[in-house]
Specification:
Two copies of one chain form a homodimer.
Chain A (H helix, E strand, L loop, with lengths): L5 E8 L2 E8 L2 E5 L1 E3 L12 H7 L4 E4 H6 L3 H6 L3 H5 L5 E4 L2 H6 L4 E3 L4 E4 L6 E4 L1 H11 L3 E3 L11 H21 L7 E6 L5 H12 L5 E4 L8 H11 L8 E4 L5 H9 L4 E3 L2 H7 L2 E4 L2 E4 L26 H9 L3 H27 L3 H15 L6
Parallel strand pairs in A: 4-14, 5-6, 6-10, 10-11, 11-12, 12-13, 13-14
Antiparallel strand pairs in A: 1-2, 2-3, 7-8, 8-9, 15-16
Helix pairs in contact in A: 1-13, 6-7, 7-8, 8-9, 10-14, 11-13, 12-13, 13-14
Chain lengths: 377, 377
């Protein structure tokens, strides 16, 4: 069988890795950050701008695309890449996270999840097999398996039962594949906040032959230190020759701390969502453009990021747009944040490729500043 | 005195004119359409895209910029062009239209209009002199005088009193100018829907030495035919060697009918507002992308407008974005509509410059189709 994807390591610094993930629609240099395009669009940003920001892989959402516009329609229109006008690779989350967040509209059995659509009230039955079928029909480069997502504060017993189910669902998903040569599949390690359960589940998932391995169930309010502990437990247990993906994380410092611990792939809504809410990641810190002090600031948003499209405008103008809730403000700050995140990935990769441990340390220090909200600002 | 602007006629077809309006920040080939950038931004569109759409002159709003971010702040930041990142000319409406629409928050006297801000509840006193001062401080290329805007159904007596006041306010505005060499000033013809009063006011305003002459108080629900009648009365009475501006009009067919009657300059919220609401002007008609029939349409939005940035995507994708209320949909349809309006202006100008009466007639026919909402769609 020809695999849809392969992964080459090109360098390491300690546990940190640099590599290339080869996918049907292109190569992804890692570490890589995926902008979130839930409904087949990164909010407000067109594919040309996405490419210019440095993105090489985009995330979309199985459940949401299933509801609108529907996977069969996307297939008839030539597949998700053509539909979005993005000629690069696409990874879809299975939709588990979204479905399981609809607590009052959800029934979960061993078969799968039955969920009542918030759009039209109809019940939809999402199983591991259905999730695979939707993703293969969309024509994505990477499909994520359906996993059971449980509450962050779940008991040990509940986590044990749930990780076992997630493994069973993964095995069903593997059997349901029809286009393994066109769509790669990643499994997901769960295990809550219990180190031994995380370790056990990582080993269980690692024993299965998958194109890549993800760590899920983090960035759900557990805090930076707990998250890092769980990565430290799971990452070393995943196959060294396959890509590793930390789902839904995080601020730039969370990402770099995960890179240092051997993670290759990331997605997060923060750069886009924060941008829409008037916040910018800069090398000086996370700036809230609603703050009065920016109203008369003629300087560029981030002198340390000359490639940012927002730097063509003054902080004062951006602050004005944010105050007036103007679309252009949301868009420029989103573009800026995406460019910032990609620049962090570029610097991390460059340090690892060069074997520059000091450079990686320096980046860890600098992204801590970039991720913090400066006092008095 | 050096004037801030001059106007050269380069061709005519009947009453239709082609020309060049020379302004401090650049030349504007006419007929010209100004995108509306009320708060110093055309909603969702950046200046580079605005330029690419064919725009050469942008409209902003005195009253709104006075409230936010304030004219003194804009001046300190280098003027409105630098503030917006738009290096071309800018015209500001005086804000009269906006102020007079705040009926419950308004007191009007001979001195001016006192209006209670919807933002912070403070009372602001807008006089002809204040309007000039704000606009000169912003550093706009063209300032519009403050005029009294009254209800469309106003009585003859009320219109007579109001046009007289508008003339007195214009004379006060002329006396208040400090930078006539940097900021041009246009007067505004009112007169309601009374042909004789329109004619009289046009002659009165034309007798004053202004950089340009606008026709106001139209596009307020009077209908296409009444609007055209008022233009036919006013336009021929305005100086032939100065630019003529029809405020707030309209659909492409309204614009072309006005061009045929001797108007040079236009602004309207329609291309931007309609775009945000999922409607596209095309050579096939005005399309509502919410319509079911577009959900599976793999074709481009407007095959007749190859330069439209929206044509990189299918109608099906645009329909999806519109249904999901995605920012990218609003932005692409706005860009498309702006490009469409500029293409109409380009074709009108080309026909007039070439002395091509048949071409102009053909355009009149085609924009009627473009402005209509096709049945069964």
């Amino acid at each position: 069988m020809t695999r849809a994807s392969s992964f080459d390591l090109v360098g390491t610094v300690g546990a940190a890795r640099a590599g290339v993930l080869h996918l049907p629609h292109g190569d992804v240099p890692t570490p890589a950050f995926m902008p979130v395009g839930t409904l087949g669009t990164v909010k407000g940003i067109d594919p040309t701008e996405l490419r210019a920001s440095g993105a090489t892989l985009v995330l979309a959402n199985t459940y949401h695309l299933w509801e609108r516009p529907g996977h069969a329609r996307v297939q008839a229109l030539g597949g998700i890449q053509r539909f979005m006008g993005w000629d690069g690779p696409i990874l879809t989350d299975s939709g588990g996270y979204q479905v399981f967040s609809l607590k009052d509209h959800l029934k979960v059995t061993e078969e799968g999840a039955t969920v009542r659509s918030l759009l039209d009230g109809t019940w939809r039955h999402l199983t591991p097999e259905v999730a695979v079928e939707i993703q293969e029909t969309l024509g994505v480069d990477v499909a994520m398996v359906l996993d059971e997502c449980i509450e962050a504060e779940a008991s040990r017993e509940r986590v044990i039962a749930s990780t076992a189910r997630t493994t069973r669902w993964l095995k069903r998903a593997l059997l349901a594949r029809r286009h393994a040569d066109r769509t790669a599949m990643f499994g997901i390690v769960q295990g809550g906040m219990f180190p031994d359960l995380r370790a056990e589940h990582a080993e269980e998932i690692a024993s299965l032959d998958l194109d890549g391995y993800a760590i899920g169930g983090l960035s759900v309010g557990e805090g930076h230190d707990a998250m890092v502990s769980m990565i430290e437990v799971a990452a070393p247990r995943l196959p060294a020759d396959r890509v590793r993906y930390l789902m839904g994380v995080g601020h730039p410092n969370d990402i770099v701390e995960a890179i240092v611990r051997g993670i290759d792939l990331f997605d997060c809504v923060l750069p886009t969502r924060m941008g829409r809410h008037g916040q910018a990641y800069t090398w000086e810190g996370r700036l809230n453009l609603k703050n009065k002090r920016f109203q008369d600031d003629a300087g560029p948003l981030d002198p340390g990021l000359p490639e940012s499209p927002a730097n063509r405008f003054s902080r004062a103008y951006l602050a004005h747009l944010v105050r007036c809730e103007e679309l252009l403000g949301k868009r420029l700050l989103t573009l800026h944040n995406l460019t910032f995140f990609q620049e962090v990935m570029r610097q991390a990769r460059a340090a690892v490729v060069a074997g520059d441990a000091a450079g990686l340390e320096d980046l860890r220090r600098r992204v801590k500043i970039a991720s913090s909200s400066p006092g008095g600002r």
